[in-house]
Each structure stands twice: as structure tokens, then as C-alpha cells.
Design a protein that fits this description.
This protein has a domain at 282-361. It is built from 17 helices and 2 strands. The protein has helices at 19-22, 37-46, 61-81, 85-102, 108-132, 138-152, 155-171, 175-186, 189-193, 195-211, 215-231, 247-260, 264-277, 283-299, 303-316, 324-340, 345-359; strands spanning 12-14, 237-239. Strands 1-2 form a two-stranded antiparallel ribbon.
């Protein structure tokens, strides 16, 4: 992470370790938890981050630290509950305060940090909508976040925004834009300085290329992602926003790419590797990877096994709502299940059993 991001850099988390060590990691060790997560976002929206009467005339390091903590709280809440509109509103409120503070008396250095924080808040708002499957306003948020990252001269934030832009474009089935966004991420200073950032950018490119029908290019990008991760020092800390990325996530992305290019056996093997290396705390990652495994099994004609595997998703997420992106993946599973086994009794049983759980936000 760029040390120039703020006067006191955002807390970092260790780069995800090799599979044998991953299971011991818990992201909650590295980030503060929201007190009362169920109501935390509403409180963040309803109550100003600093009361108007108590604001000092000069903005300094303590304001940067306070807002940085608030970003981390929102990231942590997202990890617990997934994206939702209350989280979007809380993030936009944080961006508004950061922009308001930079207009007051402060140093140029602090002003840039505030622009970076405003970009981070705005990107968090965009992500909350992407994860919820509410895509209409997320592109506008990302445009704003990218502008603010430029004003902050912050390559880390620029990389983060292009990564989200690639994810959004893929969800919209705008695959040429997904490739272009991932390639823009590859061009950032953050990628040039960090093999882990480079690995993520190449992995995003591979997904876009696979969906665009450029299968050989997709596999080359996937190889580059693996090579870059192989060069990374796993003891070097990663920024909070990249805490999700490591060997397990790359295996999960490999499953997507291999499935799309028509390599179902490899697509099935990759999720098993991902699940073996995912920390238990990453429930949503585990559920999403399980959907990928079920799809790979289904695409090999193993309908009964695929149905059984997909049912594990609801067990993993028991007690929590299914995020929008996961519901979309389950929707893809249902469509392929009906297509590949239209008269099979097991397909109708799956639909009857899980329609309510799957369709409820």
C-alpha cells in the first residue's frame, strides 16, 4: 500500500498466506467491529460524524484518523451483512464530511488524504450496491470515486476503483468494458509496485476475456495472475480492501474462467482448492465458491451432486440473508439446471425447496 495515502496509513492486513496457514486468519483481528452491527449503518446515516457545534476551525491528523476508522467500520459491516442501501447511505455521508473538511483550514497533505478518504467512502458505497445486485447507481459512484482518487493522487484508490469497475461491468455483461477496466488497473502504480495487486488485475482481466470469448487470452491472463502471486512476499501487508485476495480467491476466479472457457473438470478442481484454503470467517466467500463448484459439477452432467452441493450454500448462509450477487449466481444455477435437466424430478425439487430462501433479499 502507498504510504502517502494518509498521514497515518490505513491499517494493513497480512497478505493471505499459503493454504496451510490461511485457516488461522480472521479479518476481525485486523479491523474494528461495529457495535450493534444490525443498527450500525442506520446510526451512521442518522447521526453526523461530528456534531456541527464541536467542529474545530483547523482540520488535521485526528480528523483523518477518525474518518479512516469510519471507513474500516463500514468495510467490517459489509463483511458481516453484505452490501445494502443503508450501507451505501452511510458511506456517502462519510464522503460528504471528508469533502466538507477539506474545504477548511488545513495543509495540502491533509487535504489530499481527505480526498482519498472521500474516494474510499464513495467506492464503498458503489461496492455496497454491486454486492446487493443494485447496479443502477453504482457506476455513477465509481465515476465520482475515480475523480476523487485522481485529486488525491492516490494510486491505491485508483486501483481499487478500476477493480470495482471491472466487477460492475462483468455483472452488467459488458465484457469489453470489464476487460478495459481490468487493463486500466494493470496500468496503475500500485500494480507496478506490488505483485499481489498485479495478480488481482490479471485475474480480473482473465474473467472479462473469458466472457468475451477470447479464451486463449483469458488463460494467458490467468497464468500471469498465478505467476504474479508466486512472486509475492506473503508476509508483506495488504491494504484492507484487498484482504479478500489470496490463493483461495485466485482459485475461485480460476473456477469461473475454466468453466466459461469449457474446462469443467479444471473448473471443479479449483473450488475444492479454494474451499480448502479459505478461513472459516469468510462465510460469503465460502458460499460463493460453493456455487461455483455446483455449477462446474452441473456442467459436467453430474446433476445430483450439483444439486447437493448447491444446497450447502443455504447451510453456510443460515441465519443471514443471501446477498444480491449470490442470488444472481444461484439464479444462473437454476437456469442451467432447468436447461440441462428439464424433466428431472430433482430439478423441480430444488426449485420448490430453495425458491423462498434464494429469492429473499
Amino acid at each position: 500500500m502507498e504510504l502517502s495515502r494518509c498521514l497515518f496509513p490505513a491499517p494493513l492486513v497480512p497478505a493471505p498466506l499459503v493454504p496451510a496457514s490461511l485457516a488461522s486468519l480472521d479479518p476481525s483481528v485486523h479491523r474494528r467491529r461495529f457495535v450493534g452491527a444490525a443498527t450500525g449503518t442506520a446510526a451512521a446515516v442518522a447521526v453526523p460524524l461530528v456534531s456541527a457545534g464541536s467542529r474545530p476551525s483547523h482540520v488535521g491528523t485526528s480528523d483523518v484518523i477518525r474518518l479512516r476508522d469510519h471507513v474500516e467500520n463500514l468495510v467490517d459491516l459489509d463483511a458481516e451483512r453484505g452490501g445494502h442501501t443503508a450501507l451505501e447511505r452511510a458511506a456517502l455521508a462519510g464522503a460528504s464530511e471528508a469533502l466538507g473538511l477539506q474545504k477548511r483550514s488545513t495543509t495540502q497533505r491533509v487535504r489530499q488524504r481527505l480526498f482519498a478518504l472521500a474516494s474510499d467512502f464513495t467506492a464503498t458505497a458503489a461496492w455496497s450496491l454491486i454486492d446487493a445486485g443494485l447496479l443502477d447507481n453504482s457506476g455513477r459512484h465509481l465515476d465520482r470515486a475515480l475523480t476523487l482518487a485522481g485529486m488525491a493522487q492516490d494510486p491505491e484508490m485508483t486501483m481499487q476503483v478500476w477493480n470495482l469497475r471491472a466487477m460492475l461491468a462483468r455483472q452488467r455483461a459488458e465484457y469489453a468494458e470489464a476487460v478495459a477496466a481490468a487493463q486500466a488497473a494493470q496500468a496503475t502504480t500500485a500494480v507496478r509496485r506490488s505483485p499481489m495487486h498485479a495478480s488481482l488485475a490479471h485475474a480480473r482481466t482473465a474473467i472479462g476475456l473469458a466472457h468475451s470469448g477470447e479464451h486463449r487470452a483469458a488463460l494467458r491472463s490467468l497464468d500471469r495472475a498465478e505467476d504474479a502471486m508466486g512472486k509475492a512476499d506473503m508476509s508483506v501487508p495488504l491494504p484492507i480492501w484487498m484482504a479478500f485476495y489470496g490463493p483461495a480467491e485466485l482459485h475461485s476466479i480460476t473456477a469461473i474462467v475454466r468453466d466459461v472457457v469449457g474446462h469443467p473438470a479444471e473448473a471443479e478442481a479449483a473450488p475444492y482448492r479454494a474451499l480448502a484454503s479459505l478461513p472459516e470467517a469468510y462465510r460469503r466467500n465460502r458460499a460463493n465458491t460453493t456455487v461455483r463448484l455446483a455449477l462446474a459439477q452441473l456442467h459436467q452432467g453430474d446433476v445430483e451432486q450439483a444439486v447437493a452441493t448447491s444446497g450447502d450454500v443455504f447451510d453456510i448462509m443460515a441465519g443471514d440473508s443471501i446477498p444480491g450477487r449470490m442470488r444472481q449466481a444461484l439464479g444462473s444455477f437454476q437456469r442451467d439446471l432447468i436447461t440441462l435437466a428439464p424433466s428431472a424430478h430433482i430439478a423441480h425439487e430444488w426449485i420448490d425447496r430453495y425458491r423462498t430462501e434464494w429469492g429473499t433479499p
